[in-house]
Amino acid sequence: MKYIDEFRQQTLARQLAGAIRKEADSSRTYRLMEFCGGHTHAIFRYGVQDLLPDNVEFVHGPGCPVCVLPTGRIENAIELAERHGVILCTYADLLRVPAGLGKSLLKAKAAGGDIRMVYSTQDALQIARANPEREVVFFAIGFETTTPPTAVAILQAQAEQLQNFSVFCNHVLTPSAMQAILDAPEPVAIDGFLGPSHVSTVIGSQAYEPFAEHYLKPIVIAGFEPLDVMQSSLMLIRQLNEQRHVVENEYTRAVTREGNVKAQRLMQTVFERRDTFEWRGLGLIPHSALKLKPDYAAFDAEVRFQLPTIKASDVKGCECPAILRGAKRPVDCKLLGTVCTPENPMGSCMVSSEGACAAYWSYGRLRDGRGKQQKAQAGKA
Amino acid sequence: MRSFIDFKNGKVDLSHGSGGRAMAQLIEALFVKHFDNELLRQGNDQALFGVEAGRMVMSTDSHVVSPLFFPGGDIGSLSVHGTVNDVAMSGARPLYLSAGFILEEGFPLADLERIVISMAAASREAGTPVITGDTKVVERGKGDGVFINTCGVGRVPAGVTISGNRARPGDAIILSGSIGDHGVAIMSSRENLQFATTIVSDSAALHTLVADMVDAAADIHCLRDPTRGGLATCLNELAKQSGVGMMIDEQKIPIKAEVKAACEILGLDPLYVANEGKLVCICAAEEADALIEVMRRHPLGRDAAIIGEVIADDDGFIQMTTAFGGQRIVDWLAAEQLPRIC
Q: What is the pLDDT of residues A6-54, one digit of tens each?
């Protein structure tokens, strides 16, 4: 496969690092929020921070679908498997997310729940076709990237008159999250955004133009490869130095201004906005999530199984909410590495490999010596 | 006893594990026939063999791989290689194997025969006969076709002391070849994930490579095959056992382009993907070049490379300089990346 190593080349990285060092004004700091978990993961996995000057700082954003899903929705899913006896089809990274009372989908599966790991909506449809006597529910999560495939599955199920297939819809909208962060009562200091990568292939770069204009923040749509992250950081630093604040597109090999119009139409056909939706860390955000339109209610698991709204509380001391807003860093959490580890996650940021805590803990905890300290403390405890 | 077993269309049934005539026929017509050797022919519940004075090692491994047949091998050959390698990682010369089969009612006898033939071929090639065995049958739905447990014994040459707790700061870390082939080959043949690839499993018996290495440098400190959990897990285990840290260089780790591409698509980190024909060797730095030379002369060590060094670190961190030029930790595997890989 071409185009893997091309975007991870050390020589180019060094050149970019030199350019950033030259461009960055040493008398100020640059706080850049990388919006997506994919960016966070790349930053830690490749050690991008090591190549940047100290005054260029990444603030980890909320763009990890698993991380922003409130635990109440996981409890709904567990209920679907346990109480309603459905075959629950889910993406793998949801399995370990801790819900209330020490529950998780993985534990529900071990206790006999028919919970199956799928790689795509098509797998879930196939399971529904193969088990006509069982109810099959697809646990749909994600931003605009994973929404069109869910729409396709619903339209397919309708065309095939699949009576036993439904979708538990948790799709959320990226621009709403960005707005929530910028409108927060105590806004986090952010100078600019590394804009969503795959999401933008669908919604296009124009979706962010109002933010750049209204909030005077530069936004650069950035690919997920480490060189993308560096190039985009350089573009942001340049805009900041020139006091510009526009949407620029670094990820031109995949993103256009308009985005994928066909996919957008599919979403509009099947989904409509909810009045409000709870985001972990960001709270209730109006019009920030999608539900199935009444025309497709037959495929809506929330309607079919009359799922209640569960207000779940997060683990005490867990800083995931503040971390997802960019208000705190993983190192600021007292649970990190002591009771909260990838093996035994307390919060969702530790579960998904895209979560800021998991990325920091797995790849970067030696960076500030904190990992060592905590290991020692854990040993004493 | 003549065989009336229909290996073409027949299925495993409960009588094949009952201890009665059907079981005896299956053993005779299948296991004894293909594994055939003098010790097995003794026909007892145990195999009797003489041993030389010295030190022996023993290891056991259960195989539950899914699917049973994959590019580059099957559960039969894998069950030989897995145990031969576990024995060999002590520096020992593997001598004998046992084989325990747990069969599921309804499993096609044709598949079972294919597996046993492959297993027999692997054991012959490795020079480690299967000298005792066991067969059990479980009801349909209580197993998944076939599970195989193998146990192996081997003799450790005098003067060889290879153990996971012997890595010392300054030691060199050698890897025998490219990583991730087995895990990706398995994934590519999984039912819900089929994709076209030319990657085949690296499943192989490593004991002749080990023998060459031990001949060249008797004081190898550690040997381990990076199977489940991949290279990352293997290095973390050794670091923990020895109470040291490690510093490795991503650019020195051989990975095939196809494996890298497949991992990219599947969202896997090749450092955590299983291998079944690779080894990690830790030795004094001054012995490393000689060992690399010997390894590269062996077909299973052609791509051998020094990938890093052991450093002092009470916390046992594995650190890596990324190909990109940054630093990261290579941590323990947190969750199962790929279930039932061996």
A: 888 899 999 999 999 999 999 999 999 999 999 999 999 999 999 999 9
B322 vs A17, A46, A365: nearest CB: A46
Q: Are B334 and A343 inside 8 Å of each other by CB?
A: yes
Best mutation target among B249, B329, B336 (most A Cβ atoms within 10 Å) is B329
More confident residue, A372 or A76: A76
Which residues, listed in sequence order, are joined to residue B223 by a DSSP beta bridge? Answer: B281
Q: Which helix (H) or strand (E) holds A331?
A: none
Longest pairwise C-alpha distance within chain A: 67
Amino acid, single-letter form, for residue A28: R
C-alpha span between A361 and A68 (Å, rounded): 19
Going from the N-terminus, what domains does chain B have, and what CATH number goes with each? Answer: 14-156 (3.30.1330.10), 172-329 (3.90.650.10)
Check if A15 contacts B (Cβ < 8 Å): no
Domain with CATH 3.40.50.11740 in chain A: 1-314
Query: Is A4 within 8 Å of B260 when comparing Cβ atoms?
Result: yes
B17 φ/ψ angles, rounded to the nearest 5 degrees: -120, 10
* The CA-based dihedral angle spanning residues A233, A234, A239, A241, taken in that order and rounded to the nearest 10 degrees: 110
pLDDT tens digits for range A300-336 = 999 999 999 998 767 888 898 889 888 999 999 999 9
Please, what CATH class does the domain formed by A1-314 belong to? alpha beta
Q: Mutate one of A56, A94, A362 to test the B interface: name it (highest B CB count within 10 A).
A: A362
Give the burial string for B99-138 (b: 16+ CB within 10 Å, else e): bbbbbbbebebebbbbbbbbbbebbbebebbbbbbebebb
CA A129 to chain centre: 30
Q: Are A280 and A348 in contact (CB under 8 A)?
A: yes
- By DSSP bridging, strand B172-175 and strand B280-283 are antiparallel
Q: Which two tokens stand for residue A355?
A: 């979560």
Is the complex ipTM more than 0.85?
A: no
Does the CB of A123 have a partner CB in chain B at under 8 Å?
yes
Bridge-based pairing of strands B172-175 and B55-63 is unpaired
Tell whether A357 lies on the interface with B, counting CB pairs under 8 A: no
Chain B CB contacts of A343 under 8 Å are 334-335
Asked whether the beta carbons of B178 and B62 are under 8 A apart, the reply is no
Smallest CA–CA distance, residue B340 to chain A, in Å, is 14
Residue in A105, A224, A366 to test binding to B, most B beta-carbons within 10 Å: A366
Query: What predicted TM-score, i.e. pTM, was given to this entire model?
Result: 0.87
The CA distances from residue B68 to A118, B76, B77, B251, in Å, are: 21, 8, 10, 34
Choose the closest CB to B322 out of A5, A47, A123: A47
DSSP bridge partners of A302: none
